[in-house]
Amino acid sequence: MQLQPHPALKRFVRHYLILDGLHPVNGMHRLFADGNTGLVFNLDNALMCAAGNKPAQHTCWLYGQVKTYHDLSLTGSINWIVVVLQPYGAYPLWGVPGSEWYNCFFPATEILGARISDISNALAKAKDLPQRICLLDNYLLQLVDQKCRSDEQVMQAVQHIMMQEGAVSVEALTQALTISERTLERKFNLQIGITPKRFADIVRLGFSAKRMQRMQSPHSFTGIAYESGYYDQAHFINEFKKYTGITPQQYHAQANPLALNFLAL
To answer: Which residues form the HTH araC/xylS-type domain (predicted)?
Structure first.
């Protein structure tokens, strides 16, 4: 379930993703790139760690732009609220360049301090979901009051890429915004953590995944490849596997992914 943040937060927060009431899990899960960063509030007993690391139970995790995908060991009951940020949302909120937490998934206290643990504890004690959303809104609104605004050119570039569903060249993007490629790339690395080209590729991948979730026939992969702006089905398969580690056919076979870009292996 997705819930909208306070209207004053829409420049920074895309939505709140609620993952609750699920069966206990015990196994590997894959999180692949979707162009967003976020905060994961762990309100129950779930243990999580990157593949090869020791499992740990933290009340809040923070993740930056994902290079391709993270394999995460997940055990316990999932009761999460994920603050899915706008691609450029983290930098104005916390002042940390996007490039510094690129491809990172770590306890939020490492950057946000003990205050984020207090928020997580308050969320766990809240009596219902509306109260939890109110707590999150208030915490984030305090940050917005203290921080600078998002870069307008980066926001416009992201909006343009989203409108084109990722099927846009960097040259077309710089012409539309009247900005040099070098300047746009520098701004993206600071505010988002990846280049405009990589962000567009990830957005295109995300739209193709949405199309696969809606498709009825297994013979529709070629159509999805062309609809998503790939040269052909082979190009689509190669790009999809590069970012997710699995083929489109394997992704489509997933019965109940936890989210569009988060699924059990």
So the answer is: 152-254
Number of domains in the chain: 2
Contacts of 99 (CB under 8 A, 6+ apart): 189, 190, 193
Question: What's the pTM value of the predicted model, to 2 decimals?
Answer: 0.91
How is the chain split among helix, strand and coil, in percent rounded to 5? 45, 20, 35
DSSP code for 125: H
Euclidean distance between CA atoms 223 and 238, whole angstroms: 16
Q: How far apart are CA 174 and CA 134, in angstroms?
A: 39
CA distance 253 to 35: 23
Instruction: Please answer whether residues 122 and 135 qualify as being in contact, where contact means their C-beta atoms are separated by less than 8 angstroms.
Output: yes
Mean pLDDT across the chain, nearest whole number?
89
Which stretch of DSSP H or E encloses residue 205? helix 196-214
For residue 97, being part of any structural domain is answered with: yes
- For 150-194, give the DSSP string: PPHHHHHHHHHHHHTTT---HHHHHHHHT--HHHHHHHHHHHTSS
Range of the domain at 47: 2-146
* DSSP for residue 56: B
Q: Which residues contact 53 (CB under 8 A, 6 or more apart)?
A: 73
Question: Which among 24, 30, 99, 113 has a CA at the least distance from the CA of 71?
Answer: 30
Q: Kindly give, in sequence order, each residue whose CB lies less than 8 Å from that of residue 65, ignoring residues fewer than 6 positions away.
A: 33, 35, 37, 87, 98, 101, 102, 103, 192, 193, 194
Tell me: do 86 and 168 sit in the same domain: no
**Of 187, 209, 189, which Cα lies nearest the Cα of 257?**
209
pLDDT of residue 78: 86
Residue bearing tokens 């995944």: 209
Q: How buried is residue 173: exposed, middle or buried, by Cβ count under 10 Å (0-12/13-18/19+)?
A: buried
pLDDT band at 213 (very low <50, low <70, confident <90, very high): confident
